[in-house]
Every structure is written in C-alpha cells, then in structure tokens.
Amino acid sequence: MKFIALDIGSTSIKGVVWDLDRLQVVGKSVRVASPDAIAGLPAGHFELDPMQVTQLVGKVVDALSAADNCDGIVSCTQMAGVVLTDEQGSPLTNYLSWRDQRLQMKHQREGQSCYELLLQRLGDVVIRQLGHECKLGSSLALLFWLQQNGQLPPDAIPMLLGDFVGMQLAHAEPVTEYTNALGAMNLETRRWHDEAFHELGIDSLHWPRLCDPYSPVGHITLKGRKVPWYPSVGDHQCALAGTLLGVNELSINASTGSQVSVLSDDYCPGDYQIRPYFDNRYLNTLTHLPAGRSLNVIVDLLTELTKSQGLALDDPWPYILSEAEKTETDLDVELTFFTGPLGHRGGIRNITLENLAVGPLFRAAFENMAANYETAASRLGIQNIEKLVLSGSLVRRSPTLQRKIIERLVFPQRLVEFEEETMVGLLVLALVASGKHTSLSAASDSPTIRNLAVSSSAYMGLTR
Known about the structure:
Blueprint: E1 2-8, E2 12-19, E3 24-33, E4 47-48, H1 50-65, E5 72-77, E6 83-85, E7 95-96, H2 114-129, H3 139-148, E8 157-159, H4 161-170, E9 175-177, E10 185-186, E11 191-192, H5 194-199, E12 209-211, E13 218-222, E14 225-229, E15 233-234, H6 235-242, E16 249-254, E17 258-264, E18 273-276, E19 282-286, H7 292-302, H8 304-308, H9 317-326, E20 332-334, E21 347-349, H10 358-380, E22 387-391, H11 393-397, H12 399-408, E23 413-415, H13 421-433, H14 440-445, H15 447-453
Parallel strand pairs: 1-5, 5-15, 9-12, 16-22, 22-23
Antiparallel strand pairs: 1-2, 2-3, 4-7, 6-8, 10-11, 13-14, 16-17, 17-19, 18-19, 20-21
C-alpha cells in the first residue's frame, strides 16, 4: 500500500511516496518552490494566489504518481492565514498568509491598531479559550480586518490553504482538521468559537466542518484510479508527530525558528499557547523562541564587510560550530532580537578584549538558547517529564547546544536524527488512515516505527 505525502510549505511544496508495508520511501522526493507573494500590495500585506499554489501542488502529485499506483494522499499545510471561497469552492480572495502584518496598521482611532481593537473585543477569557493563538496572521485576525474594512464577502467559507487545494484537486468537501483550527476553535468545547465570531462581526461566514485526519473528504483521479484525499493537518503538529513525541516527553526543536512543547490529554490553560493535537489531545507550546534566525543576525554582522567587497564566503557554520566547541566564556548574549514570548530586545554584554571573538560569541549564544529552553519548559511544567526529545537542524549540527540543553534539563534524551520530521509525521498519519493502526499513539509506539526512527538509512531521499 502506497500513500503520497505532501508538505504545502511557505518556501517550498514537497512530497514523497511512502510504502506503508515496507515503511520506506519509494523513489525520489519532489520539491518545487512556493510561489512569490503578490507584488504591489499595501504595506504589511502578504498574499498568495491560491490557484497558483494549487497548480504547483498538482504538479508535485502528478510527478509522484507517475511511477506507481497510489492508495491515498495525506498532507500538512502552513498554519493560520485564510482564503475565502464560495459554495462551489471558487476563491473569493487571495490566500492571506500567516506572514501578513496588516493588523498592525493604525485603525480608526488615533494611536490604536486593528489588532489592539481585536484584543479588546475578544477579552482575556476568549483569548485564553482560543489558546492564546489569535496572532496577527491568524484566520480570525485577518477576517476581522476584512470585516472592519468592508471587504468581507457575505456567506463565504473560510478555508486553510491545504484544504482549499483539496477542494480544487480532489473535489473535497469544505473541512478543517482540528490541528488547523488554530486560534478559531474554543479549546474548552473543541468547537468553533461562535462567541468570538459574533464579537468580531464575522458570524455570517459558513465555517467548514471540523474533522479528524483519518477519513477521506474527496477523491482525485490518478492514472485512471480514484484515490482518497485526506484532510490537511497543521505542519507544526505534524512535525511533532514525526518525532514520535509521547506523553511525558518534552520536545525542543531548534532550526530557523524554535519551539518547546509537551502533550496533554486535557485542556489546561496557562502562560503558554495551546494548540489542538491529534486524537483529542492538546499541545502546550511556546513558539517563536530565538534560534537560527537570531543567530543569522550575528552571522550577517560578521560577514557584512566581506559582502561589501563582493567577496564570496564559504559556509561559515563549520568554523562557528568548531570555535564554539573549543571555549568557555563569560560573554553574555541575549538572542531576543525578534518579538517573541521571551522579549523583543536582544544584547551582547560583558565584552572584553579576550572574549570578543567568534567562538565565545556563539558559545554564549548557545548558552542563552539553552537558558531560554529551560525558562520555556518551566512555564509548560516539567514535573511529569521523563524524557527530552531534541530535533531540528541546529540541534543536530551543534554538540555544544545539545550539551548546554542537557546540562539545564537533566532528563534522559533522544535526538531525532532525520531532517524531514513532517514527512515522517505524515507516514504515521497515513498508517492510521489506511487502517494499519488504530490511533496516532498506537502507530508511534509500534516497535517497527520506533526502529525506523533510529535508522538513518530508512530516510534516504528525505534529507535535503
């Protein structure tokens, strides 16, 4: 039995064919660049042509289906954002991306943004019920902006990008899988938050049916066969499913961005975000922690002079990692250069003639990252944690960072060796959708999947 797995991402659209019987990738992965944002829009706007995305996904599916028969298609999609459609699935708007920042613009009242007005309308109780996920690029926020600016089409259907693609390619019914109901679902009831919709004046919309990821919602014809199309899931939760995250495990992921997460069987609000997870669970998480994006600010500073001279510089990271491994330092670095849950201003302090060098600088940066993870873990609660799950390219590449994390969070740990966690997460979901396992946790705990997760050769074709 073979399933196509698709990751409809922000920078690329990629896919593989999983053989569910052998638990291995068939052939090569296929990857195409995601379309550029539509040019000429006002400041803060970030929109994509959803039909262009659909065409690119169709090309990936065609390329993957050419070599073999397919028994199902599973996918994950970039979370938040929204595209509005009519009842036939035709787009009434572009896809307003999660990267859109238009709500920061000033609203009708002097000194107040549309986002500030939204938070006032909702209030603390509703914001908590939404999991503290009503961000600038959330579907709820973007729909509120359209309503406030007289641009909300009446009786429209709000869709996530992956499910819009399914409507176009597979005539899928309008649905939203629970993990993609981010910031619009009442986590206490696991239903759409009708009260929030009313407060924001968007209650005339026809919200899709909420569903789990294991039942097909449409069919696409490939090589003369009707192939089931399953609901698209959230890429963050899918990646964590790919790490085989279990209850009582603390996930630390560090790549361009960074997150700390734990699973919960119950809705337990606190000083963190809560996201719907698979099989009626919840994901308590802190996202947008400083990681590769912040480190690249320092790299850009260090390489500015060579770039100004037009000099080509080889990959600086092998040298950075090697030098950071060699030294201890009393340099103090705070990587909060971008707004996040731990602040919005960074710094480099306690500089001396001896410690202002590449090795000490990045050693201090890694120490700050580890300290941030300890702070985030304390917010989430670590009293029941039994194991650390470390994932992401930055953790894999840096023994220094691994060691600093383990020094602060003293638990048994396992390192996720493979790169494409989302593709492995889609494999696990496909195993449940195909009937080979009864739940995500059952599939994740299967000895064959556990053995696969520690065998790097099993992921040939998934690494970049």
